[in-house]
């Protein structure tokens, strides 16, 4: 339910940013972040609340939210186009790799219903350390970019430094998945 809330908030955030209602967008972004934290807390502390569907929806909700935020913040001229292109491209490559791994680890006969059934887990992607750092840096940049017009620092050199840090961690994260490839995938036995 919390992941679905985050997915639902993503287009609302995009709309608010495009309409330049940054005060409200900042509040909605905080709400979306709260749902993500709460979702993780509940999954870690109450085993009965963990589900295969939830473990598939959580990263999907994050990707949808980040993609919409970066595209809309770029549209509002708060994040440069090349950086957004880099981030979206990395995510598309990761999603393509996940689809490939899913296909490779699915036992025969491979069917569409098995392939798209989130309750039928065959592999788990373990994020690299730099990927976790990258996620944090990307979220910090989104928060800082959303806050920039509210607190009048859209032309700050610190925001530009954050763009560079985000580009570096995004590139390093993409490389880490390429370099460590198989080590980041854990095949679930018995499927």
Automatic annotation (TrEMBL):
It catalyses: a CDP-1,2-diacyl-sn-glycerol + a 1,2-diacyl-sn-glycero-3-phospho-(1'-sn-glycerol) = a cardiolipin + CMP + H(+). The gene is CRLS1. Its EC number is 2.7.8.41. Its main location: membrane. Pfam families: CDP-OH_P_transf. It is a multi-pass membrane protein. It comes from the Eukaryota. InterPro entries: CDP-alcohol_PTase-I (IPR050324), CDP-OH_P_trans (IPR000462), CDP-OH_PTrfase_TM_dom (IPR043130), Phosphatidylglycerol_P_synth (IPR004570). It is found in: Membrane. It comes from Erinaceus europaeus (Western European hedgehog). Keywords: Lipid biosynthesis, Lipid metabolism, Membrane, Phospholipid biosynthesis, Phospholipid metabolism, Transferase, Transmembrane, Transmembrane helix. This is cardiolipin synthase (CMP-forming). The chain crosses the membrane at residues 22-43, 64-81, 133-151, 157-178.
């Amino acid at each position: 339910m919390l992941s679905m809330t985050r997915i639902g908030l993503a287009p609302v955030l995009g709309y608010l940013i495009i309409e330049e209602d940054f005060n409200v967008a900042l509040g909605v972004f905080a709400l979306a972040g709260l749902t993500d934290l709460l979702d993780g807390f509940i999954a870690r502390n109450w085993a009965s609340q963990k589900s295969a569907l939830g473990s598939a929806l959580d990263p999907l909700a994050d990707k949808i939210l980040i993609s919409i935020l970066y595209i809309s913040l770029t549209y509002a001229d708060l994040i440069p186009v090349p950086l957004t292109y880099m981030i979206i491209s990395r995510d598309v490559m990761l999603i393509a790799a996940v689809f490939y791994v899913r296909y490779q680890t699915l036992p025969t006969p491979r069917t569409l219903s098995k392939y798209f059934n989130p309750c039928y887990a065959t592999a788990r992607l373990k994020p690299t350390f730099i990927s976790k750092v990258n996620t944090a840096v990307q979220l910090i940049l989104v928060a800082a970019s959303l806050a920039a017009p509210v607190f009048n620092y859209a032309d700050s050199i610190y925001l530009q430094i954050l763009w560079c840090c985000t580009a570096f961690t995004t590139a390093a994260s993409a490389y880490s998945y390429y370099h460590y490839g198989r080590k980041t995938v854990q095949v679930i036995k018995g499927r």
